[in-house]
Design brief:
Blueprint lengths: L7 H25 L5 E6 L12 E3 L7 H17 L2 E9 L23 E8 L4 E11 L2 E4 L3 E3 L1 H4 L14
Antiparallel strand pairs: 1-2, 1-3, 3-4, 4-5, 5-6, 5-7
């Protein structure tokens, strides 16, 4: 996979970015039983105007309706391009999503995680897209996160593709 991403350093940077984002979300969920809906961007250190583009975008209202979802998606896609982001990682709690409720479906979209509370982590880059659901439970008064469960992104994406797709060179 590192060949697909260009260099081993770039692969390590993207992998570390994903792991750090998941860890931040899990710590927040354990501490406060919530995560803030955000998109974290892995900015290009050489190209990004850091005075204009930050590494985090709050998306509190993005999942209230199809209209707000579409507007947010358009904004994030442009932000990813304008900021020269190499990857993005969305973190959103399931309980604030009015649209799209990706856990309500049949067939390949059938939800296997019951009514558990939890949050989604969706990783985006030009070469790869992945989504996980991290369910939580309350045991003896303490909120605990379960292991991340990988989902089929074509059936459960919370946001459409943010980056233009780049196919790997053979």
């Amino acid at each position: 996979m590192s060949k697909m991403l260009g260099s081993e350093e770039r692969f390590k940077e993207m992998f570390s970015f994903l792991v750090e984002t998941m860890e931040i979300a899990v710590k927040s969920w354990h501490g406060a039983s919530k995560v803030d809906p955000r998109v974290y961007f892995l900015l290009d250190k050489q190209k990004t105007q850091t005075d204009k583009y930050g590494p985090v975008v709050n998306i509190d209202k993005a999942f209230e309706s199809p209209h707000s979802h579409g507007n947010c998606f358009s904004f994030l896609r442009q932000y990813a391009e304008d900021s020269f982001s190499m990857a993005a990682c969305l973190v959103v709690p399931k309980n604030i999503i009015s649209y799209p409720q990706v856990w309500k479906g049949q067939g390949s979209r059938k939800w296997k995680h019951g009514q558990h509370d939890g949050f989604f982590v969706q990783y985006e880059s030009p070469l790869m897209r992945k989504i996980w659901f991290i369910a939580s439970s309350n045991e003896k008064g303490q909120t605990l996160c379960r292991d991340p469960e990988i989902l089929d992104i074509s059936a459960h994406e919370v946001l459409p593709r943010l980056f233009k797709e780049k196919l790997p060179n053979p």
